[in-house]
Every structure is written in C-alpha cells, then in structure tokens.
Design brief:
The protein has two domains: about 15-135 and about 235-250, no CATH class; about 140-220, no CATH class. Helix 5 (about 60-70) packs across helix 8 (about 100-115), helix 7 (about 90-95) crosses helix 8 (about 100-115) and helix 10 (about 155-165) crosses helix 11. The chain has helices spanning about 1-5, 15-20, 35-45, 50-60, 60-70, 70-75, 90-95, 100-115, 145-150, 155-165, 170-185, 190-205, 235-250; strands at about 30, 135, 140, 210-215. The chain has a two-stranded antiparallel sheet. By secondary structure, it is mainly α. The two termini are about 35 Å apart.
Length: about 250
C-alpha cells in the first residue's frame, strides 16, 4: 500500500479501491518525469539522438519490464488489467506525455528503470530513477461556477496564471496554457498538482469557492492541453542534474 501511495499522486480523499476500479483501466494517468529522464538519456548519448529516439530504446525493455512489476502493484489493479504484456508503442506513448492506463504507466516506469540501470553511459546507471517518477491521474475538476467563470473570463485575469504555467517558454506554450485553462473552465479533468496550482492562484485572486474534487463520472473529458504542464518541479530537475553529475564524476559505467 505504501508503495502505491508513493507512486501515484492522488489526494487523501480518494479510496484506493474506488480508484483502481473507476480509473485505473482507462487512459487517465501521466508518467510524470519520463520526459525529463528521456532528455537526460539523450544528452548522455552521442549527438544526433533525440528524446523521441530514446523512447524507442526505453521501449526495447518492454518484455523484461512486464516481469519486473511488483506483485503489490498488480494486486491493487486486477479487473481489466493486462499485466502480462505491453506493446513497445504503449511505452513510447507514455514517455511522450500521453495519458495511459495504470498498468501501462507501471510498466513504463519499470522500462525506464531497466534502461538506466543497464546503461553503459557514465552517470546514467547511478541515477535512482524511482525518485523522479510519479503517476499523475487526471481525475480532478473544478465544479463550482465561480472558479470556472473566472477561468473563462477576460485574458487580463488569467494572463498571470498563463505566465506561471508556461514558465517563460515560447508563445506556443502560452497558447496551450490558455487552452488548458479554457478546458478547466469547462469542467475538464486534470492532475492533482495542477488543480492545486490553479486553486492557489484563484484564492490569491479573491475567488472564494475555489474547491476541486475527483470526478464522479469517468466520461468527463481530461484537459487535452494539460500534458505540456505535467513535469518535474524545479527542485527535482536540479536534483536529477546533480545526481547525473555525481555519477559522471565517479567514472563508473
């Protein structure tokens, strides 16, 4: 149980049995940290390797990853699960930031662990991949009219939140952030991390009823533009860089 709680980013208000039955069999979870790890994996290899190419390398571990998934993970999700197989393209999709099923997310995490553990590139094998990976289900929604109306309001209201979400990246990223907020205003489902982030901003803006809660109907659509904003915190990115540098310094492979 503790392993599950560490692995999956859900609030304390969610019953795990309900989560496994209502959401785990469906494409509702992001593998947060996969994109950053892939970027590092590509950086450690000769020039010319892209993050997308590295995803195919990770997916090459799919058959062994199936065996590596712990039994306690499997016990939490039994109905409609496919623990005995995974296609390489399922792992590629998860690494690219797409929403995936719980079983596919777990198998992707194991494939990443295997690829790093057995890498011959200096610095990669020493990284504890599990420190940087979480499954983030997109199952939270703002239900009250006030926060949804505010998010759907004039751009000058949401511009600071757009800037915060996009983190000073490109104009294209800002446009995706605006689309994400419009989806949130329409009641779209998102991750706990981003729901909390938006809630904090709403409260600072004086929106009183800024509560969100788990969706009760899995037919509620996820915010399709959220994937750009599911990533490691600045602290974890710094820790990842530090661990990689320390591994390189040892000269081990």
């Amino acid at each position: 149980m503790q392993t599950f709680l560490r692995l999956v980013d859900v609030g304390r208000d969610i019953d795990l049995t309900y989560f496994a039955k209502a959401f785990a069999p469906y494409e509702r979870g992001y593998v947060s940290g996969a994109k950053e790890l892939l970027s590092l994996f590509a950086l450690a290899h000769p020039k010319g390797y892209s993050r997308e190419a590295m995803a195919s390398v990770i997916a090459g571990w799919h058959e062994i990853a199936v065996v590596e998934v712990p039994d306690d993970w499997k016990r939490l999700f039994k109905a409609d699960a496919h623990w005995d197989m995974v296609k390489p393209q399922d792992i590629v999709r998860a690494c690219a930031g797409h929403l995936v099923r719980f079983d596919r997310a777990c198998q992707t995490i194991k494939a990443l662990e295997l690829a790093f553990r057995h890498s011959a590139r200096p610095g990669l094998a020493q990284i504890d991949v599990a420190k940087f990976l979480r499954i983030r289900p997109a199952i939270y929604s703002f239900v009250a009219q006030e926060p949804r109306a505010w998010l759907h309001g004039p751009n000058n209201c949401t511009d600071p939140l757009v800037k915060e979400l996009s983190g000073g990246r490109s104009e294209a990223t800002e446009r995706k952030a605006k689309k994400f907020l419009r989806e949130a205003a329409a009641g779209g489902a998102m991750t706990l991390t981003n729901a909390t982030r938006i809630q904090s901003f709403l409260r600072d803006a004086g929106v009183d009823n800024a509560a969100f809660k788990p969706i009760e109907n899995r037919n509620v659509k996820s915010c399709s533009h959220e994937s750009c904003f599911v990533h490691l915190s600045a602290e974890l990115v710094s820790n990842l860089d530090t661990d990689y540098a320390a591994g390189q310094a040892t000269g081990l492979t």
